[in-house]
Amino acid sequence: MITLAIESSTAMGSVALLDGDLLLGEEQSLIQRSHSEFLNSAISRILIQNNLSLSHVDWIACSPGPGSFTGVRVASSLAKTLAYSLDKKIWSVDSLEILAAFDPQIDQPQKLVAINAFKNMVYYSLYLGTKKILGPQVIELSLLEDSIGLIFPSGSIHFCGDTFDLLPSFLSEVMTSRLIPPSHSALIHPTASVLGSLSHQRPEVGQTLDWISFQPLYLRASEAEENLRLRANLATRR
């Protein structure tokens, strides 16, 4: 089964092509604000390199987010367009689940998975072993400790994601001491190759949807919407 996987929830955009669990090729880019151009050209290159065309694709794997508003929108729109034009299904799993599922320390009892939402905010999920018990959600970093403490009142908490270095500035010394940093081999960004592998190895963690049912996971408004809301709030105070 040929899987075309697309992921651009964070600063990294990536495309991967898999035949079952066999990775046929992957391209990644860390050039921000260019995911749309990169994803389309990368798909063409990977297919050509493997002497395949879009007609050979059996299904599409795509993360709906959470993450960068633009990145989520670009990947979701591309996946929906391909699924519609090719009459294929989309296998969907959130970006935090990608990081958690392929973490080298997957069996740690308590786990915090978080990626940067910027403006002192994070997208996060909490896990007990491999079971998700909260999330994905978005929260201000100043409120994160209270949220974690309600679910994990004691014991060590394994961290996975890209925001570990930000946390000490917003957490107490006690909570910071409870956090176990990510291993050197852990993912920082969710990638298309991991997404594609996950769709075969653990399909039960995601959903298989048609192009209409697949929707991006926007937990925050876009920057433009936030600016409009700010202007409106300022106007009402005058």
Features:
238 residues; alpha/beta; Nucleotidyltransferase, domain 5; six-stranded mixed β-sheet; five-stranded mixed β-sheet
**Proportion of helical residues:** 25-40%
Annotation field: number of helices: 7
Strand fraction band? Answer: 25-35%
CATH topology call of the largest domain:
Nucleotidyltransferase, domain 5
Q: What would you report as the Rg, rounded to the nearest angstrom? A: 19 Å
Secondary structure tally: strands: 11
- Please state the oligomeric state of the protein chains shown: single chain
CATH class of the largest domain: Alpha Beta
Give the low-pLDDT segments: 224-230
Describe what is shown at a glance.
The protein is α/β, with parallel strands linked by helices and 238 residues long. Helix content is 34%, strand content 26%.
Task: Describe this entry's structure for a reader.
This protein has two domains: 127 residues, ATPase, nucleotide binding domain (Nucleotidyltransferase, domain 5); 78 residues, 2-Layer Sandwich (Nucleotidyltransferase, domain 5), CATH 3.30.420. The chain is built from seven helices and eleven strands. The termini are far apart. Strand 2 and strand 3 form a beta hairpin. It is of the alpha/beta class and 238 residues long. The chain has a six-stranded mixed beta sheet, sandwiched between helices. Helix 1 crosses helix 2. About 3% of the residues have low confidence. The radius of gyration is 19 Å and the shape is elongated. Helices cover 34% and strands 26% of the residues.
